Every structure is written in structure tokens, then in C-alpha cells.
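Dear support,

I submitted the protein below through the web form. The confirmation email said the job was done, but the results page showed an empty box. After a refresh the structure appeared. I'm attaching both so you can tell me whether what I see now is the final result or a partial one.
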Amino acid sequence: MSLQAKDFVPEKTKGGMFKSGKIQSFDEVLNAANQWISENPSLKIVNVETVVLPNIHDSDEEGSHDTELWTGGESSSHWYQLLRVWYRD
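What the results page shows now:
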């Protein structure tokens, strides 16, 4: 039984010329995690945690599994709250 993790990241829709993008609500992310857990009853859930990471939707980042996320300087950063489910299969 190996320890594994699955992240449920809020989806971001692209904005248009006069419309900004939209981020899924935390409740929608929680619902997705609950659905995945119910669809995988053989997994042993070890822990569920919230994680806050910067800039995971940026084109030069690798999402929630990127080991180096950049923030700093004079530019703005966007921080995202996600759910991480730790489990054993």
C-alpha cells in the first residue's frame, strides 16, 4: 500500500475581451472531492487538507504538483485554495 495524493484544484475559465475569468467555488471543489471519494470506496482515505498555492493556473507553472511556484517582485500574484486527499490504495 503506497501513500498517494489527489488534488482537487478549482477550475479557472478563461475570460474574454471584456469579461474576466471565473474560478470555481470552494463548495464545487469539495463536491468534486466527495464524488471522487464515493466513486472509489476501496481506497483508504488517510487525510484531507486544504492547501493554498500561488499562480498554479499560470502558463509557466505545472499546477498543484509543481515543486517551485513563483511569487514576488512588483507583479501581482493569485493564490488558490485547493483540496488534497491523501490515500492508500
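Response: this is the final, complete result; the empty box was a page-load delay. Strands lie at 3-8, 12-13, 22-23, 44-54, 79-88.
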